[in-house]
Design a protein that fits this description.
The complex is a heterodimer of chains A (115) and B (113). Chain A has 115 residues and is mainly β. Helices cover 0% and strands 49% of the residues of chain A. Chain B is an all-beta fold. At the A-B interface, strand 4, strand 5, strand 9 and strand 10 of A face strand 5 and strand 10 of B.
């Protein structure tokens, strides 16, 4: 399978705990995006990387959220001191930045439940 | 930032009927992308529109970008049960914000056999 993969697929945690999610993009893609999706809403942009550089972080993202892409391949998204409002589907997407290329390929997501 | 509003929020149709969802913005958009998300699935890219008045077709799906680049539509002819899902429009501001997508709320399509 050469698509975008995410692990774990589901995570249940207690409020106040830290969680980390992993995303493996399509291998030749240089852009990697993180989105959050809640029920009945479209994906909401969180942050994105080009190679290992983090280009932008949403203003909606609190300091409890951090993302890395250390070698320009896989990425991790960490949420510290989780809150119930963090419960959502966390989606990763990747794309290849080149002329005429714009589609983003989404992974299956990690569903986070904070109890 | 860019914002897009989608209507309707829900659409129930009988198999064989047509379906249209609309995406509107108060500002001029650099582009519009359309994605489909099946129940329990993840968004899948359908198409991107860039030019004013652009029309693109994919089998039974027709995508339009308005002349003023402030609205877009997705029309499905003769729906099938495989068309079930949520259809999202999305846009980015272009330039340095290329790829930073803002999604609409989506239109949930239900097709009754």
């Amino acid at each position: 399978d050469t698509g975008v993969s995410q692990n774990p697929r589901h995570k249940i945690t207690k409020r106040g705990q830290n969680v980390t999610f992993r995303c493996d993009p399509i291998s030749e893609h240089n852009r990697l995006y993180w989105y959050r999706q809640t029920l009945g809403q479209g994906p909401e942009f969180l942050t994105y990387f080009q190679n290992e550089a983090q280009l932008e972080k949403s203003r909606l993202l609190s300091d409890r959220f951090s993302a890395e892409r250390p070698k320009g391949s896989f990425s991790t998204l960490e949420i510290q001191r989780t809150e119930q409002g963090d419960s959502a589907m966390y989606l990763c997407a990747s794309s290849l930045v080149r002329a005429g290329a714009y589609e983003q390929y989404f992974g299956p997501g990690t569903r986070l439940t904070v109890t | 930032g860019q914002q897009v509003m989608q209507i309707p929020q829900y659409q129930h149709v009988q198999e064989g009927e047509d379906f249209t969802t609309y995406c509107n913005s108060s500002t001029t958009l650099s582009n519009i992308q359309w994605y489909k998300q099946r129940p329990g699935g993840h968004p899948v890219f359908l198409i991107q529109l860039v030019k004013s008045g652009e029309v693109k077709k994919q089998k039974r799906l027709t995508f339009q970008f308005g002349e003023a680049k402030k609205n877009s539509s997705l029309h499905i002819t003769a729906t099938q049960t495989t068309d079930v899902g949520t259809y999202f429009c999305a846009t980015d501001a272009g330039g340095t914000s290329y790829g930073k997508l803002t999604f609409g709320q989506g239109t949930i399509l239900t097709v009754h056999p």
